[in-house]
Write a structure and sequence with these properties.
By secondary structure, this protein is of the alpha+beta class. The chain folds into 2 domains: 2-223, Rossmann fold, CATH 3.40.50.300; 228-316, no CATH class. It is built from 9 helices and 17 strands. It has helices spanning 42-50, 92-102, 107-120, 136-149, 166-183, 194-200, 218-223, 228-233, 292-296, and strands at residues 2-13, 16-27, 31-35, 57-62, 65-66, 78-80, 154-158, 186-191, 203-208, 211-217, 239-241, 246-249, 255-270, 274-281, 284-291, 302-307, 313-316. The strands form 4 sheets. It has a 6-stranded mixed sheet, with helices on both faces. A hairpin with a 2-residue loop joins β9 and β10. α2 packs parallel to α4 and α3 (107-120) crosses α4. Residues 4-234 form the ABC transporter domain. It comes from Deinococcus rufus. Pfam families: ABC_tran.
């Protein structure tokens, strides 16, 4: 049985169609990320699953049960908000025990469950502290522990790392991935951060203007974008003109340096690890990232480049006026 099934979900706010024909599923023990730019509808999908918004049409099933018309408290899902939404007047233990208490557990039972989950996220030593005394990363783990303590088979996380600095985000990505694997619940994660999606997800669903435009295993989506818009959003740099209405996507791994013809270097930019250059290739300008060793071997104002044509992807150009997201 799947943890979540969405069937033809639609949601509008006035004349704005926030979610259009979204269908997807999350298996037990799987992490699916809704990835897309701000305003694409991904958070609205999550809110429809949580019961915080009512879809105009379509169906939401949690563990095979139709919950479309049920209030949030009757859906038995764990929810982690972007701002964590912790209770500042309660201790760490009190925050985590809140869910089991609301589901009818006795205080001693709820606190025992809370301590087990706090041990899982590495915060058992901080159980008596107020959440206002914790760092941002610790508060994020308390919010996750509170969601886990409900025993829900589905966790919903809305931009869970967005309030942390980059170093802490990097650390928590690996922690969350390991934690998801231990818990075994289905996870629906919302983010606009491509690196976060790739690091945490089993599968990714890319959203644009309320629709899912590509979904699949995370490495497959990142390595083989279905369209030019998806490629540009995922950070692909080399989108070269193709046939009418088409674009050639050139992965940097398909480019061999030091072989083939020499082409003029039209732009250079120093980076922490080497040099970024743009080469005037006949098919279009190629942007390449050279290591310090490769940059040192650059001969004058030209670079020998050979492109493996078998690894170039030909995809539809669905951008607006050729623009990136």
């Amino acid at each position: 049985m799947t943890a979540l099934d969405l069937h033809h979900l639609h949601k509008s706010f006035g004349t704005v169609q926030a979610v259009q024909e979204v269908s997807l599923s999350v298996a037990a023990g799987e992490t699916l990320t809704l990835l897309g730019p701000s305003g694409c509808g991904k958070s609205t999908v999550l809110r429809c699953v949580a019961g915080l918004e009512r879809p105009d049409s379509g169906r939401v099933e949690v563990a095979g049960r139709d919950v479309t018309a049920l209030p949030p408290e009757a859906r038995h899902v764990g929810l982690v908000f972007q701002d964590y939404a912790l209770f500042p007047h309660l201790s760490v233990l009190g925050n985590v025990a809140y869910g089991p208490r609301m589901r009818g557990a006795a205080r001693t039972t709820a606190e025992a469950q809370a301590r087990e989950v706090l041990a899982l996220v590495g915060l058992e030593a901080l159980a008596s502290r107020r959440v206002t005394q914790l760092s941002g990363g610790q508060q994020q783990r308390v919010a996750l522990a509170r969601a886990l303590a409900t025993g829900a088979g589905l966790l919903l996380l809305d931009e869970p790392l967005s309030n942390l600095d980059e170093q802490r985000r990097e650390e928590l990505r690996s922690e969350l991935r390991a934690l998801f694997a231990r818990v075994g619940a289905g996870v629906l994660l919302v983010t606009h951060d491509q690196r976060e999606a790739l690091a945490l997800s089993d599968r990714v669903a890319v959203m644009r203007s309320g629709r899912v435009v590509q979904q699949g295993a995370a490495p497959q989506v990142f390595d083989r974008p279905a369209t030019a818009w998806v490629a540009a959003f995922l950070g692909w740099e080399n989108l070269l003109p193709g046939g009418p209405g088409r674009v050639r996507l050139v992965p940097e791994t398909a480019v061999r340096l030091g072989t083939g013809d020499a082409f003029p270097v039209t732009r250079r930019q120093r980076t922490d690890t080497g040099l970024t250059v743009t080469v005037a290739h006949p098919h279009g300008p190629l942007t390449l990232h050279l290591s310090a060793r490769e940059a040192a071997a650059l001969d004058g104002d030209a670079l020998r480049v050979d492109v493996d044509a078998s690894r170039v992807l030909d995809v539809p150009d669905d951008r607006v006026d050729g623009a990136a997201p």
